[in-house]
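Good morning,

Attaching, inline, the backbone tokens for the sequence recovery test we're adding to the shared suite. The designed sequence is right after.
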């Protein structure tokens, strides 16, 4: 997590998340939502502000009538590609640029900066951490992203949950 990690692991995980699903440019989003049209949406998120080790989540919603197994298999294929081939310097540069733009937009309101600082302080970080965020994101390299991907994308670290609607008969009961 950002509080206890040595080096820039938390920042590299943030960049990895952006590479995978950052807007319409993310690898998973582009492949699953735009090209294959197998998912309505796919997203990742690194929760590095918690007091424990943090979490890297991947979420996907198959299209109506789509196969959940197929969506999960494509996520696995894309993770395998990251682990085998890494990410490109251009992907890292683009992801960092999108993240910095997002951070600027978040500060461009009356409440945005207050929430950003309050959240950081509430999670044990400092004002200096908040101010240094752009430089720390800028320091992330493709090698850093590959290193954290290799740390987290292991079968023993993976948990898959499936949310399904109640069967019609159960849903009709009071």
């Amino acid at each position: 997590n950002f509080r206890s990690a040595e080096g820039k692991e938390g920042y590299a995980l943030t960049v990895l998340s952006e590479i995978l699903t950052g807007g319409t440019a993310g690898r998973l989003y582009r492949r699953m939502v735009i090209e294959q049209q197998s998912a309505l949406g796919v997203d990742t998120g690194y929760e590095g502000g918690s007091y424990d080790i943090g979490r890297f989540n991947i979420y996907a919603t198959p299209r109506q009538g789509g196969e959940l197994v197929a969506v999960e298999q494509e996520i696995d294929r894309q993770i395998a590609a990251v682990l085998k081939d890494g990410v490109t310097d251009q992907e890292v540069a683009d992801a960092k640029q999108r993240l910095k733009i997002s951070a600027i937009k978040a500060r461009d309101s009356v409440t945005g900066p207050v929430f950003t600082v309050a959240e950081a302080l509430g999670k044990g970080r400092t004002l200096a951490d908040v101010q240094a965020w752009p430089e720390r994101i800028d320091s992330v390299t493709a090698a850093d992203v590959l290193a954290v991907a290799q740390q987290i994308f292991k079968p023993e670290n993976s948990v898959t949950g499936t949310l399904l609607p109640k069967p019609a008969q159960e849903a009709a009961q009071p």
